[in-house]
Amino acid sequence: MKSRAAVAWNAGAPLTVETVDVAGPRGGEVLVEIMATGICHTDAYTLSGLDAEGKFPAILGHEGAGIVREIGAGVTSVKVGDHVIPLYTPECRECKTCLSQRSNLCTSIRSTQGQGTMPDGTSRFSLNGESIFHYMGCSTFSNFTVLPEIAVAKVRQDAPFDKICYIGCGVTTGIGAVIYTAKVWPGANVAVFGLGGIGLNVLQGARMVGANKIIGVDINPAKVEIARKFGMTDFVNPRDVGNDKVVSAIQDLTGGGADFTFDCTGNTTVMRQALEASHRGWGTSVVIGVAPSGAEISTRPFQLVTGRTWKGTAFGGARGRTDVPQIVDWYMGGKINIDDLITHSMPLENINTAFDLMQEGKSIRSVVTY
Ligand code: NAD
Ligand code: AHE
Ligand code: ZN
User: Fold this and answer.
1) ipTM
2) Which family does it belong to (predicted)?
3) Ligand 2 centroid, distance to 314 Cα (angstroms)
4) How many CA atoms within 13 Å lie on the side-chain side of 138?
5) Whole-structure pTM over 0.95, yes or no?
6) Which residues span the domain enclosing 305?
């Protein structure tokens, strides 16, 4: 079949909207009509050429919501007409990691996802006979895409696609980092570095679990107003206090350091600040941001010897097929706010504007509706 899709031809080049060919789903796969997709910083990161797994030409996008239109042989967990959210972190419920219940990092199809193909090593996308790579197993910048059934979460039918698409990455990553990965306790002091599409969801997750101080750190003061709306109690601008004073500013606000800190920037200097701003003896710092391929983090080992824990999270530690439907329920029940984070929406033809707005710090989330 044919599908409109925004194709990334080369690193750094704007996407172009094409009519691509999409081959039907094979065994264990489903064809999904994507109704809406968010644009995440990770899409921009891969487009920039800094992603070790970035392949071109590719159809990017990993934050979508849509409807199952066709199922391949042997598919049992979803049917035609089901509403689904694609999962870049699938949940096979059979691999060692899924069975361990210790991590959400399902391994069943991870290697082919990183190679830009379906699990059988081939692509369902082509244009004029030339194959186009998938991206993170999702490719939500195509109106129709193919996914393994283990990589879709079935969700309720009354939830609006143009809002719940954001649960496909940003919302779940931010809130999940708080509740599944860090397990922030009521009354904890929290510091969030980077108040974008992810960091603001960390803020609302921290508020949800009853955190005490929720400190936001960002170089863009335009983020303050929305951050306060999502639970920020105090703000630190590294450009005002001085980059070398960020850690002490947080220690002063918390009486020695935050119980939990989160990096939502992808900047390795910030990751170090976040670790060192966590409390001696028990502080935990969670890396969410994705750093350029080849970048490394450093700190004095003394920071760890003195009881801090440095950890990371992908997709907020959420088990997609299990946890995502519940997060949709939280949204529908008014427990979490998504609407105010979606600052821009546009048709696929204007998708490059979404990247520009994000790079300029003028949007939180842009959503493309098909
Ligand atoms: P974004 O562009 O919306 O937000 C980034 C924010 O960081 C901006 O507000 C920016 O002003 C701020 N910032 C930049 N440099 C800073 C600095 N030196 N100090 C303080 N603040 C700074 O991006 P996003 O969509 O929120 O994504 C954030 C990061 O999370 C990206 O690296 C993205 O790739 C990553 N990410 C990771 C996961 C995961 O599963 N681990 C999921 C989604 C996104
Ligand atoms: N391809 C990159 C890794 C990028 C990365 O860490 N991605 C996160 C999700 S970001 C969503 O916006 C992730 O899920 N990581 C775990 C995994 O298995 O990829 C690189 O550096 O090679
Ligand atoms: Zn993302």
Assistant:
1) 0.99
2) Belongs to the zinc-containing alcohol dehydrogenase family. Class-III subfamily.
3) 7
4) 28
5) yes
6) 174-313
